[in-house]
Amino acid sequence: MDAIASNAPLVVFIVIGTIAVAASFLVVMMRNPVHSALFLLLTFLCVAVLFVIKAAEFVAAVQVLVYAGGIMVLFLFVVMLINVRHLPDEKMTTSYTLGGIGVGVAIFVLFFAVVRTGAYHDEAPNAAKKLTTVREQVLTQHPTDPNKLVRKWRAKDNRNAEAIGMALYRDYLVPFEVASLFLLVAMIGAIVIGKRELSALEEETAPDYMLERVETEKEVKDLVNAN
Amino acid sequence: MPSTAQYLMLSATLFAIGIVGVIIRRNMITVLMSIELMLNAVNINLVAFSHRLADLQGQVFTIFVITVAAGEAAVGLAIMIQLYRLRSTVNVDEVKTLHG
Q1: Using 50, 70 and 90 to split pLDDT, how confident is the model at A130?
Q2: Hey, which residues 31-90 in chain B have their CB within 8 Å of chain A?
């Protein structure tokens, strides 16, 4: 029983890791982008489990919320917006296929050679060191004058999310604010780029259903104006 | 407990699969998905080293990487939708107006 309990993280790692690798392989191999997106979702969820094994619960939650919740919905929306059934079938083997697989194998061999040198094979060398210990200021009584309070630093053991919050809002406050500015710029950029306007070039190349819709809009406007 | 080396191997595998996807796929949606796969492999590395070194910086960096990935996906998909409106294709081979 003890052996099972102590080996449980390793077993979970092997099972979930295998699923993650298989799912990511299918992401690349699936012809239909909807299937690719669903396998990508499976990969993200597996990676979240891997984060939990390494005691990163908050990052795992963010992974599920942002990746599996936000980015995947974005991808699926775009796949629905772009009518993939009306696209010509993608050729699965092109002149890039061999070179691409070669580059992938080369990168994998490179990483494998680096990891294999044996520097990282021991299990949790810093396990005794607490990952989530933070220093916080507390008010304590002055040693000699009982009417005075002094600020003192104290080590406190926090939960993962609490410790990350402390790090984000104290040590990484400026990068955090820059990240929020980055998100604002990305949002404005996405809105401006994705805005729909029919230019002359677009009227030439736009698919038929879009021109039909524009014509219908014009007819409705004309009708409204006529009445 | 799985060792750091095992995590690094898994992350290397995911990264290699992602880079193969970026190169061999001609569909722009799948190329963007492969980029997300590679960013995720990097995140696995960061979390594994954060655990190994008992240092929270790795997890904080992971959160920033996820932020950047979200922005990148939003802008990339917006560009792709606009491209589809202009050319009615998402095949990267057919978009070569800028070829040198």
Answers
A1: low
A2: 32-34, 36-37, 40, 43-44, 47-48, 50-57, 59-60, 62-64, 66-75, 77-82, 84-90
Q: Is residue B42 part of a domain?
A: yes
pLDDT of residue A20: 96
- Phi and psi at residue A142, in whole multiples of 5°? -65, 140
Could you tell me the residue range of the domain that residue B36 belongs to?
4-87
Residue B42 sits in a domain whose CATH number is 1.10.287.3510
Can you tell me the ipTM of this complex?
0.93
Least CB–CB distance from A187: residue in B50, B66, B74: B74
Count how many domains chain B has: 1
Q: What is the Cα–Cα distance from A21 to A18, expressed in whole angstroms?
A: 5
Give the least confident one: A149-163, B43-57, B78-92.
A149-163
Q: Is residue B99 part of a domain?
A: no
- Mark out the alpha helices in chain A (DSSP H runs): 2-29, 33-53, 57-62, 72-81, 96-116, 160-166, 173-194, 200-205, 208-226
Interface contact A78-B70, CB threshold 8 A: no
Using one digit for the tens of pLDDT, what is the confidence trace for B19-72? 999 999 888 999 999 999 999 999 999 999 998 888 888 999 999 999 999 999
Instruction: Give pTM, 2 decimals.
Output: 0.80
In a domain, B96, yes or no: no
Name every chain A residue with its beta carbon within 8 A of the beta carbon of B16: 104-105, 107-108, 111
- 3-state secondary structure (DSSP) of residue A134: strand
